[in-house]
Q: What sequence folds into this?
């Protein structure tokens, strides 16, 4: 099978059928080598998140990420992912300038980027877009709760839907996103009880990040959970490794061996 193929063994049908049967594992990845390592470990889904704006490009938030950035990283990930499903984030404004632009941009992430699905932030206000993209044959993942592309409206990255009204609205949005055709739904930074209620109310799987343990799956930013950064990390992150420390230690050893002449060793 060619490396360019989008025909990965993990399909939307498999993901849907995992609800209630097996938890779904999802992590972000942004390049070929990391995608290869994550895929090899047996992940179900890789998200080429627009969090690449933070992690790969050093921006403060995801509003600076473009379609061109997403295509560049999605192509790279798709070449490394042989088994899992590759989901690409629709970046800021890529689905807000009309249905035509939205379908065109989603289509580019599939046909050029070689993703298997796209993810977009929002509820009832984007349902027309979700339906149009789905009708074009492109699987869509929804995203509710903390929607980081709206950070300038939300005023920060805190837990969302804390009032009864906001919780009711989120449940209504979740049902609308499902009805519009999404095959799964990311729930970011909402109370665990609400995430459970949404999970129980939908027939499509939910994938949580900072949304408790009752979702049908979990997602984290790869660099957060591998411990690549030792400065600020969100409170819902667990570091499963300390890769950042290892990298600095390896590079430090290299520098000192270059400086003191012990590397390279001359072969006779
Ligand atoms: N590296 C990284 N990890 C992420 O999880 C992530 C990104 N980048 N970029 C896109 C969004 C933004 N997300 C974020 C960003 C910050 C917090 C955060 O700082 N949360 C605080 C609470 C902040 C508050 O209450 O105002 C926390 O302690 O969890 C959470 C999620 C999740 N996503
Ligand atoms: C945090 C996840 C859900 C995301 O959207 C991203 O990594 O961009
Ligand atoms: Mg995102």
A:
């Amino acid at each position: 099978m060619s490396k360019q193929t989008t025909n990965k063994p993990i399909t939307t049908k498999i993901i849907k059928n995992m609800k209630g049967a097996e938890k779904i594992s999802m992590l972000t990845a942004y390049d070929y080598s990391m995608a290869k390592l994550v895929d090899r470990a047996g992940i179900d889904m890789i998200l080429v998140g627009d969090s690449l704006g933070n992690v790969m490009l050093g921006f403060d938030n995801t509003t600076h990420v473009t379609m061109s950035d997403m295509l560049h990283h999605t192509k790279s990930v798709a070449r490394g992912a042989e088994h899992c499903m590759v989901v690409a984030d629709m970046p800021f404004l890529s689905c807000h300038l009309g249905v035509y632009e939205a379908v065109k941009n989603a289509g580019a992430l599939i046909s050029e980027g070689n993703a298997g699905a796209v993810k977009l932030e929002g509820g009832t206000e984007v349902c027309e877009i979700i339906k149009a993209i789905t009708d074009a044959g492109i699987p869509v993942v929804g995203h509710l709760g903390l929607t980081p592309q709206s950070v300038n409206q939300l005023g920060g990255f805190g837990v969302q839907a804390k009032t009864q009204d906001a919780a009711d609205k989120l449940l209504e949005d979740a049902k609308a996103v499902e009805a519009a055709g999404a095959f799964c739904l990311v729930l970011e930074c909402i109370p665990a009880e609400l995430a459970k209620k949404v999970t129980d109310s939908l027939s499509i799987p939910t994938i949580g990040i900072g949304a408790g343990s009752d979702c049908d799956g979990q997602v984290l930013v790869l660099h957060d959970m591998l411990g690549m950064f030792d400065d600020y990390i969100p409170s819902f992150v667990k570091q499963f490794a300390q890769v950042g420390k290892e990298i600095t230690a390896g590079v430090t050893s290299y520098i000192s061996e270059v400086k003191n002449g012990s590397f390279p060793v001359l072969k006779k």
Notes: Strands lie at 24-28, 45-48, 85-89, 117-121, 140-145, 184-188, 206-209, 217-220.
